Amino acid sequence: MKKKFFLIVLIIILVFSSNLAAQEGAKTTAEDLFSQALKNYNQQNFNQAEQEFSLLLNEYELDEGFKFSVLYYLTMTAVKENRTLSAINYVEKLEELGYQSGTLNWQIGELFLNKNRQFDSADFEMALKYLKKTSELGLSSNTFKRDLAYAYRENNKRENAADIYQEIIDDNPIAEDYLNLAKLYEENGDLNKAVELYEQALAKGTVQQSIYLNLGNLYQRLGNYNSAISIYELGIKANPNFVPYYVKIAENYLALDNFSNAEDALIKAIDINRNSYHAYYLLGVIAQERKDYEQALNYYSNSLTYNPDYVNAYLAEGKLYLEKEEYNNAISSFLQAVEKNPEFFESRYYLGLAYYHANMMEAARAELRRTLHLNDRFQKARDLLDEIEKN
To answer: Does some domain include residue 356?
Structure first.
């Protein structure tokens, strides 16, 4: 009997000792598991790291500081794997513990910005929500401010975006900051201020290729054609095979009535890319100005070969036939233009004009009325219609 009693006591002692050892082992295992999870995180084994961090959170008694660390890395793991909803969930759990992290809110905001194009589209409204919260939590680096300004801009809050870009420029700007602020001024119609900022971006050194087109286009819109040409020539030095620079140079030379230089630039454009339909169109314009109608028609034909939907080429072709008093051919070209874009009032006006010259007054009247329906302020159409109505 005593022997049986001692055996039972021995079993109880062994079980109790095992439980104590297991409890002690659990504490050690939690620390080891965290180290292993952190190692996997640093090695970008994010799926494995998440499993281990989740196990720590759900299966172990953790003190507040330990739980904060686990939730922080769970959030970062979700961010790395582009799982936005999971990241938000973990951040909310952190906030329930009384912790708020500007860095984590920034990471979530960046996911919504879709800067790496990991999603089909961005959600700029949600991005702004988390980036504003980041700002409220005290983050103020220029890198963060660029994200915040971008979110404001995409939410049509241009004034807020402009203020932030100006803050960055006043601190420690890069060329891109000038470009972004320049685009905002351009969108608001302040072209001179936009030009000033683009010039400052150029002075910073390394810039995006787009700056040459953007700045050149601004000069062109302002009627400063020589400056536009100079900027496009800088673009050619940076990228000699970029066809749009040559085409834009040609447009500005045409504005200056310098047909020879315009022609040289367009031929160079076609040498680089024989499919440049706009270059052929402009060559046709030059040939037509020189009264070389056959050559002009060849160029317009080439333009339409490479872009059969190019309305400007049909219009130019039709105007040439009007000039030659070949009204049936003009009607044919203008009909093509109308077919390609029925809502373009100018095509309908010229079709009406061709009908008028061909003495097809009912057709002319109908087309001019359609023109005025699309644009009731188009005076040339109204004047021609009035003339027809008088007769």
So the answer is: yes
Q: Verify that 294 and 347 share a domain, yes or no.
A: no
304 shares a domain with 213? yes
**CATH code of residue 92:** 1.25.40
Measure the CA–CA gap between 341 and 191, rounded to whole angstroms: 31
Measured in whole angstroms, the distance separating CA 223 from the mean position of its chain's CA atoms is 27
Please report the DSSP string for 73-125 in residue order. Answer: HHHHHHHHTT-HHHHHHHHHHHHHTT---HHHHHHHHHHHHTTT--SSS--HH
DSSP state of 205: S
214 plus 251 within the same structural domain: yes
If 0-12 CB within 10 Å is exposed, 13-18 middle and 19+ buried, where does residue 138 land?
Answer: exposed
Q: Which domain holds residue 360?
A: 329-391
Please state, in angstroms and rounded to a whole number, the distance separating the CA atoms of residues 97 and 306. 64
- In whole angstroms, give the CA distance from residue 267 to residue 276: 10
Same domain flag for 262 and 297: yes
pLDDT at 12 over 50: no
- Contact between 280 and 299 under an 8 Å Cβ cutoff? The reply is yes
Q: What is the mean pLDDT of residues 229-233?
A: 97
Neighbours of 125 (CB within 10 A): 11
Does any domain span residue 66? yes
* 54 falls within a domain: yes
Helix (H, G, I), strand (E, B) or coil at 157: coil
- Domain end, chosen from 65, 99, 133, is at 99
**pTM for the whole thing?**
0.74
Q: Average pLDDT for residues 241-261, to the nearest whole number? A: 98
Domain count, the chain: 3
On the question of pLDDT at 342 being above 70, the answer is yes
The CATH number given to whatever domain includes residue 246 is 1.25.40.10
Count H helices and E strands in the chain, helices first: 21, 0
Per-residue pLDDT, 65: 87
pLDDT band at 20 (very low <50, low <70, confident <90, very high): very low
Cα distances from 314 to residues 195, 342, 344, 380, in angstroms, run 35, 13, 13, 20
pLDDT tens-digit readout, 106-160 = 999 999 999 999 999 999 999 999 999 999 999 999 999 999 999 999 999 999 9
Q: How confident is the model at residue 18 (pLDDT cuts 50, 70, 90)?
A: very low
The DSSP letter of residue 196 is H
Q: Is there a domain that residue 365 lies in?
A: yes
